[in-house]
Amino acid sequence: MSRNPYVRPISTTTWYMRNGRYKVYVLRELTSFLVMFYSFLTLVGLSALASGAERWNAFIASQQSTAMIVFHGLALVYFLFFQTFPWFKLAPKAMPVQLGEKKLADNYIIIGHYVAWAVLSLFIFWLAGVI
User: Fold this and answer.
1) How large is the greatest C-alpha to C-alpha distance in the chain, in angstroms?
2) Of 9, 24, 118, 119, which is most buried by a Cβ count within 10 Å?
3) Are 23 and 17 contacting, i.e. CB atoms less than 8 angstroms apart?
4) Contacts 24+ apart (CB under 8 A), 61-67
């Protein structure tokens, strides 16, 4: 009989593949790379804006390419499913609203967030001249 107990080997590179919640966690954490990309893109855009009209127009033209439009669309969907929707579902726990001795139902808080999001989006679209 061996004195050394059996230690099951654990893969350090695929630990998240064993559980669905771990997969969602890793996908949510990968949004940090998109945040980094958009921060860099903002700095490049500000640099182009400060450099003059010709460079700014070239930057805008690069953002209107098909590849960048598809990338921005996919990034938007990724952010919605792994950041926005989970946060709205978490909002009632983060900010419970108490009316007298009763608490407001979670659904009202979640729906309120979606309504505020829609109203602000419409306002921004109106400011941008889209609608």
Assistant:
1) 79
2) 24
3) yes
4) none
Give the whole-angstrom CA distance, residue 62 versus residue 48: 12
Instruction: Tokens 């921060």: give the residue.
Output: 39
- Dihedral sign for Cα 96, 97, 102, 107, please: negative
Convert the chain into a string of H (helix), E (strand) and C (coil). Answer: CCCCCCCCCCCCCCHHHHCHHHHHHHHHHCHHHHHHHHHHHHHHHHHHHHHCHHHHHHHHHHHCCHHHHHHHHHHHHHHHHHHHHHHHHHHHHHCCCEECCEECCHHHHHHHHHHHHHHHHHHHHHHHCCC
Nearest to 84 by CA among 52, 58, 110: 110
| Segment 21-69, tens digit of pLDDT | 888 888 888 889 999 999 999 999 999 999 999 999 999 999 999 999 9
List residues bridging with 98 in a β-sheet. Answer: 103
CA angle 69, 71, 72 (to 5 degrees): 65
Q: Torsion over CA of 60, 46, 32 and 125, rounded to 10 degrees?
A: -60
